[in-house]
Amino acid sequence: MAADQGDLTYQDPNRRDFIHIAAGAAAVGAGAMAVWPLVNSMNPAADTLALSTIEFDLTKVQEGQQVVIKWQGKPVFVRYRTPAEIERARADDRAGLKDPQADADRVKPGHQQYLVVIGSCTHLGCVPTFGAGDFGGWFCPCHGSHYDTSGRIRKGPAPKNLVVPTYDYVSDTRVKIG
Predict the structure, then answer these.
(1) Residues taking part in catalysis
(2) Phi and psi of 168, rounded to 5°?
(3) Residue range 135-177, pLDDT digits in tens
(4) How far apart are CA 14 and CA 39, in angstroms?
(5) Within 10 Å of residue 116's Cβ, how many Cβ atoms?
(6) Residues forming beta bridges with residue 76, ordered by sequence position
(7) Closest Cα partner for 76 from 117, 132, 30, 131?
(8) List of residues 6+ apart from 84 with CB closer than 8 A
(9) Which residue, 80, 59, 48, is CA-closest to 149?
(10) What is the pTM of this model?
């Protein structure tokens, strides 16, 4: 039976195909809009990515002083240790340590006067203060952890030493962290 212009049951196949294609495209677009926030959340944060490495000029730290810099949202202690602090840290290598590590393993060869550690207590992440502890190093006032002049845990609830981040000397006076 041939369809003519006056027959109401006749439907144009081109029009039906267009409606199906348009509905499918709208569904794909809506699905992409729903999934995009999830995919975008997996990208690294811009502030963290910007600070994946940082350089620091060591001439800004005088002997016996400490500077706190921010790296990846964490405080990093850069301490210019005195000869007495270095000597005390080396003497404590043989002490009963919770997390045994020699002082020489926590500094770079030829630069033992500079100690670079992440300034977060390994117990619950508080920021320790220098010079208040029983061992000449850092003291965490939150729960009473005591660290020595090499950043090693000596007393208190902290299970590990202060973390030494990955760092290298770019020159004799510049260090690159990260």
Answers:
(1) 143
(2) -140, 155
(3) 888 899 888 899 999 889 988 898 999 999 999 999 888 999 8
(4) 37
(5) 24
(6) 69, 118
(7) 117
(8) none
(9) 80
(10) 0.69
